[in-house]
């Protein structure tokens, strides 16, 4: 079985570039350690932890367009081993991705975990659905308490995925991640401040008594 992600990604021009750089032998008849056309528990957990991703589409004129999507962690849902879905919220109202996917359903997603320097690449075909088209799906992909206004659903049929190496990924941390990381320091600081205040109070009391 061939490695599906590379079957899609390696075109004749890509193969020519690999040959020019002397690395084509690395990818001829490449076989991955596991299938890349269905999600496992590892991908499911990784996707569920993401609060953003990048999605690329292609216009009728051949120009690519990359858009950022964000929301509460887990807003991109793994429906089954070959299906993703998310609610598409109102944005700047240019509808470039929406228009592109109406003409060409091919999509590429990049999911980044900056603290752990990990990225997941996904090739998929995007299908746009009205909010009332599949009520149970709408309910599943609508995060509780998130106040953004959904306009449609995206259902993504997986073609293949691939994990990238961590090279050149700069670790970055969200405010929530930093808050959690320094919580022990804050707790220790609060404890020391309380002990210091207590010590000062005792010294003042002893000073007055003397």
TrEMBL record:
InterPro entries listed in its UniProt record: Pyridox_Oxase_N, Split_barrel_FMN-bd
Pfam families xrefs: PNPOx_N (PF01243)
Keywords recorded for this protein, A-Z: Coiled coil
Keyword Coiled coil set for record: yes
Transmembrane feature ranges: none
Domain Pyridoxamine 5'-phosphate oxidase N-terminal: 46-158
Coiled-coil ranges per UniProt: 182-209
Keyword Coiled coil: yes
This protein's name: Pyridoxamine 5'-phosphate oxidase N-terminal domain-containing protein
Organism listed in the record: Ancylobacter rudongensis
